[in-house]
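Sample entry follows:

:::
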Amino acid sequence: MGRVALGLAVVVAVGWFMFGRGGDAEAVTDCISDAGATVQESSEFAQVFPYAIAVRSLDRVQSFPELEGARFYFVTYGSDRAMLFVGKGDDEAEAFETTLRGMVTREGGTFAARRAGKTLLVWERPTLAPAIDACID
């Protein structure tokens, strides 16, 4: 009986490590909604992320391989807006964050983001929203 329990615990731990760290889209969007924000999925990257339009790099951004299979959400929290990116894995989220950070800073803008695992939350402007940021941890 002890070995079965230990085996189940290992399976659960491995599953959490592989799939649950900061990346389950439904869990993250539910958490953000529970924190008082409105979350709406969008298949159109440009509708969700105005930085791409502002820096005139939309075509280039949409061709990035880290976007393949990613899900995008538009988040509204009071008067603040953000884009939520849930990629295939940690590497895709990190690559996408690096790309966006470079684009925005080259244009002289500010970049306020929080990333954990395959999830990346990017605010349009620096925003204090600890309840929502906690959903990304």
About this structure: Residues 1-23 have pLDDT under 50 and may be disordered. Residues 22-136 form one domain. The radius of gyration is 16 Å.
